[in-house]
């Protein structure tokens, strides 16, 4: 069984107030328990440093944790080190990182004019097809954050990506798609942290976290020119 966890950073929108870059990330692993255990170890470290247990541990929130009540001075002072350790733990857990980066200023007119969800589905489908490339001969479980891909948000995500993988990649095994709450899925929490680290590189020129991720990079689709 192949497990895929999909999350994103940035906003794939047209408003001038949104980020310039959008990063969509998929973590791939066969070692699900190894990944879960890595996340549990890191979450315990943060909770021991005063991170509220009812507050999801996300890259963007960690980086601005001076606004979180109760965190220790040690975490405030050394948060980039702790974030780096968190990312390194994920990287060491037998995962492969695949991602798409989109410069929203370069999105074609037809995608700009399409109904909500079309561009997101398109970029996700292209990345999934690139990962599969007709070579995965076993079941796939894809878990995505329900906040961004639920059916009420527009063009259905599940049927779109299933159709692409089955037809383009000749996938003949089970391919399930689950829309879940990231607060309850350790794999989605890992994908969020990695996606944020990549986003820092493109949006802010902060490459420290991407350097940790580079050894485990797989497919990269760039839409930046």
Structure description:
The chain has helices spanning 32-48, 59-63, 73-91, 109-113, 118-132, 146-149, 157-168, 186-204, 208-213; strands at residues 2-9, 21-29, 96-103, 140-145, 175-180, 217-223. The longest helix is centred in the middle third of the chain and has 19 residues, at 73-91. 45% of the residues lie in helices and 20% in strands. Helix 3 (73-91) packs across helix 8 and helix 5 (118-132) runs parallel beside helix 7. The protein has nine helices and six strands. 36% of the residues are buried. With 225 residues, it is of the alpha/beta class. It has a six-stranded mixed β-sheet with strand order 5-4-1-2-3-6. It has one domain: Nucleotidyltransferase, domain 5, CATH 3.30.420. It comes from Saliniramus fredricksonii. This is DUF3800 domain-containing protein.
């Amino acid at each position: 069984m192949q497990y895929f966890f999909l999350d994103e950073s940035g906003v794939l929108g047209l408003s001038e107030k949104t980020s310039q870059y959008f990063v969509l990330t998929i973590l791939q692993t066969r070692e699900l328990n190894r990944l879960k255990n890595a996340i549990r170890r890191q979450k315990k470290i943060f909770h021991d440093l005063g991170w509220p247990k009812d507050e999801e541990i996300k890259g963007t929130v960690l980086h601005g944790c001076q606004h979180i009540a109760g965190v220790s001075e040690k975490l405030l002072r050394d948060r980039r080190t702790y974030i780096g350790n968190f990312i390194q733990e994920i990287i060491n857990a037998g995962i492969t990182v695949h991602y798409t980066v989109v410069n929203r200023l370069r999105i074609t007119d037809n995608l700009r004019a399409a109904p909500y969800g079309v561009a997101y589905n398109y970029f996700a489908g292209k990345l999934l097809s690139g990962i599969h490339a007709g070579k995965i001969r076993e079941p796939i479980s894809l878990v995505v954050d329900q906040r961004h891909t639920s059916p009420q948000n527009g063009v259905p995500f599940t049927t779109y990506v299933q159709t692409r993988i089955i037809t383009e990649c000749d996938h003949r095994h089970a391919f399930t798609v689950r829309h879940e709450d990231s607060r309850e899925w350790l794999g989605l929490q890992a994908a969020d942290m990695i996606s944020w680290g990549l986003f820092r590189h493109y949006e802010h020129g902060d490459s420290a976290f991407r350097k940790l991720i580079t050894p485990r990079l797989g497919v990269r689709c760039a839409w930046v020119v």
